[in-house]
Every structure is written in C-alpha cells, then in structure tokens.
Amino acid sequence: MSNQENKKITPILHHIGLTTGRFEEMISWYNNVLGMEPVHYSENPAGDIGMKVKALWVTNDEANHRIAMIGIPGLTSDMNRSKHSRIQHIAFEYDTLDDLLDTYIRLKNLGITPHVTADQGVSIAFYYNDPDGNTVELTMDTFGDWSKSKEFMKKSPTFAKKPMGKYIDVEKILLAREQGLSANEIHERAYAGEYEPNTPMDPQKML
C-alpha cells in the first residue's frame, strides 16, 4: 500500500448490471448483438428475498463477466424513461469500420436495426435499442488512437459546435465502401455531410 493518501487510483470500467422482466429475450439479444456468452447462472443469487430472481453473468472477452443480467418477475419497461434520471446508453467499440459495418449487415439480417446513426468526428456510431428499450451504441474510433481522438474532442471547434456530428445513412456508406473508398475517406465525407439520410433522424429516440 502507498502512503500517498490523496492519490487518485483510477480503476477501469468492468461490468454493468441490468434488471429486466424479459430475461430470456435480453440474454438472446445481447448474445446475438455483442456475442455475450454465459459464464454462470443462478436462481435467487442473494438468497430467499421473497421473489424468484434469476441472474446470468455473461462476457464477450477475457473478463469473468461484462454484464450481470438480473431477471425480476413483473418488471416492465419505463415508457417515460426520458423524464427520469438513468444511465442514458452503454457503448461497445469495434477495432475497424469494416467490423462495424459487417456487424450492421449481420444484425440487419436478424431484423435488428439502429434507430440513430452518426459520424461524430471522433467516432462512427450506431445506436440500437435492446428489448427493454435501453440504448446500446456500437462504435469505432475514427482516429484508431484514443489519445488523438481525445485531443480532437478537447480542441476541435467543429466537435464543440455539435458533438453529435452528422447523421449518416449506413446504406450509403456500405455502397461507398463497396466502391473502394477507404475507411478514412468515408469518415471525412460522412463528417462533411455527404452521407446524410434522406429522412431526418430524431435524436430524441436516444433519450
């Protein structure tokens, strides 16, 4: 232990916990979308508390778990979530634009599509809703370097003016990729507004 009592020791974000009344549906969705695989299942994980609680710990990497899914009978979705304090969204990052686009195609074939898509300067991000209506962002860093994207966020006047960036039509980006444009060329054109959707997107869908 250190004698530096006032030194901040910064931990990393390890996992999130989600409560749900759609236990099996949520497990299936997070497996399909993020590749979350089960690690441990438990009934009444905290002992007998007067209700039948289910819990499943899942992960998609080397961590023992990334999501703790807690099934509680009778829970319903919050239709007025935008009026309540909460975690607004969670995000998962891909290494490359191609990984993100390939995932978009795979999920589209499963009937899972994003409700908002944007090039935000530092990232290209697709926002989905899970079965409970929680917003899940799938994203990639356009710089491929967190130190550079952090610097962009700090100093770019364009980012400061509108951090949400430019809304994009993913199908137009797929076509551009098929035509041979590089990931960086696509990002530059997207951030300039070249791939905006024909129908305006509503950011309130993320609230």
Supply the CATH class of the largest domain.
Answer: Alpha Beta
The global form is globular
How would you spell out the order of helices and strands? EHEEEEHEEEHHEHH
Q: How many β strands by DSSP?
A: 9
* Beta strand %: 15-25%
- Strand order across the largest sheet: 5-8-7-6-9
Q: Give a short account of the largest sheet.
A: 5 strands, mixed
Structural domain count: 2
State the CATH architecture of the largest domain.
Answer: 2-Layer Sandwich
Look up the CATH topology of the largest domain: Signal recognition particle alu RNA binding heterodimer, srp9/1
Helix content: 25-40%
Spans of at least 5 consecutive residues whose pLDDT stays below 50 are none
Which structural category fits the helices and strands?
Answer: alpha+beta
Please, how many helices?
A: 6
User: What is the CA–CA distance across the termini?
Assistant: 43 Å
**What would you report as the Rg, rounded to the nearest angstrom?**
19 Å
> How would you state the average pLDDT, rounded?
96
Enzyme class: oxidoreductase
Pfam families: Glyoxalase
Protein name: Biphenyl-2,3-diol 1,2-dioxygenase III
Keywords: Dioxygenase, Oxidoreductase, Plasmid
